[in-house]
């Protein structure tokens, strides 16, 4: 039995090109990475790097045309719909936009009990679990009776996190889960992710474009550039002393609160781009 929770071995994802005779468009060029139980792997890259596609491949939402994805040593990239549904107990997702991922017509109680009820959990037990989850994500108990539109962006993301946690998953794919939030709310939600991991032992594949975010939450970091992993390593090493030129540009692009330091970074970034 493997000691790793998630393994990607030379994974390729490509889509058919529009027009006859054209080569398929390859998004991932043979990506290999792993996530251990209870670990956070930060997957960082700019828009178009393929990081969201990689997360979708793990979730079975993008076609794996080469290589293999394994969960606890078992191949999962070619599972059918029924097997994939069974796997969803162990692998959940938190999306970027908490509002569009929550049904606006349902109360928070209905949203959070739905995945439990469809697996046969009695309603009374499901509602008991939901009340407990609301406490875990620091939402008031009366939140269960309210609609998503009644909450702030940060609170809605807490609801989305609670939904991902309701079936006690082993791994959560986090697809830019704080990028739509203001900086203060980002910090609070990131702290919540860390707190939940310490309490439950859940692992995260944390997808983001921001190196400052992965520094805050990750144990290890993998940097994706145009469909290839260009740098991996300990989070502190990669985010403070990057080796690859692309990672250095990402670090310079991360905002800082000091205006003088921000101006210096902008100048360094422009210099790096010109060289």
From TrEMBL:
PROSITE patterns, sorted: ABC_TRANSPORTER_1, ABC_TRANSPORTER_2
Entry's Gene Ontology BP terms: transmembrane transport
Keywords per UniProt: ATP-binding, Nucleotide-binding, Transport
Segments forming domain ABC transporter: 6-251
Protein known as: ABC transporter ATP-binding protein
Parts forming coiled coils: none
InterPro entries from the UniProt entry: AAA+_ATPase, ABC_transp_ATP-bind, ABC_transporter-like_ATP-bd, ABC_transporter-like_CS, P-loop_NTPase
Organism: Streptomyces fuscichromogenes
DNA-binding in keyword set: no
Any GO molecular function: ATP binding
